[in-house]
Amino acid sequence: MRIGGTRLFWLIKRMTDLVISVLLLPVLAGVAVILWMLNPWLNPGPLLYCQERVGQHDSLFVMFKFRTMRPYAGAAKFADAEGHRISGFGGLLRRFRIDELPQIINVLRGEMSLIGPRPEQPEFARQYRQTLPDYHRRHVVRPGLSGLSQVVQGYTSDDQGTRVKLALDLRYISKSGFRMEAYVFWRTLVTVITGYGAI
């Protein structure tokens, strides 16, 4: 499929990813220390949640998050199907997207970008490739912490919602450029600051 944006855009995008992620490292370290001290009382269990996801060109990588759910070992499920497992403290972390902060490590490692299609679990990706002919096209770019489908639609757990999400992801890829990047960044910033909105 056609990928929008010039070579200069993608170069600047990657450089911006690296600079912002490096600047956020002290924030990540500070938040990690605070959560490490609070977790034994407010959210007992491991500090981090690590899960395999599908990245650019269908490569697999381990995505990092601050854990917001009570520990559970089982088959892959949609996030909104496990809402009953979210701790009260974890809900607060999710509301302001603090749980996503460790993914700057994935950005520094080149596995993710700050903005792009959200990476999916391998089990769901295999399923969608069979039911949605163009699904594989969303993997031509690095997945992101936030993306057009996230700020416009948010999480989804049904077939129709997944089709809309895919259409938005493909629109982001084909229309990539400074204007699109600025729009997604602004919508993400508003959500993070206010705690309200999609994502």
Give the structural class. mainly alpha
Specify Rg, calculated over alpha carbons.
16 Å
Average pLDDT, rounded to a whole number, is 89
The main sheet comes to: 2 strands, antiparallel
Order of helices and strands: HEEHHEHEHHH
Task: Please summarize what this structure is.
By secondary structure, the chain is mainly alpha-helical. It has 7 helices and 4 strands; from the N terminus they run αββααβαβααα.
What does the model show?
This protein is mainly α. 49% of the residues lie in helices and 10% in strands. The protein is built from seven helices and four strands; from the N terminus they run H-E-E-H-H-E-H-E-H-H-H. The protein has helices spanning 7-42, 88-95, 103-108, 122-131, 148-152, 159-174, 178-194; strands at 48-54, 60-66, 113-115, 144-146. It has a two-stranded antiparallel ribbon with strand order 1-2. A hairpin with a 5-residue loop joins strand 1 and strand 2 (60-66). The chain is globular, with a radius of gyration of 16 Å. The protein starts with 6 loop residues before the first helix and ends in a 5-residue tail after the last helix. The model has no long low-confidence stretch (mean pLDDT 89).
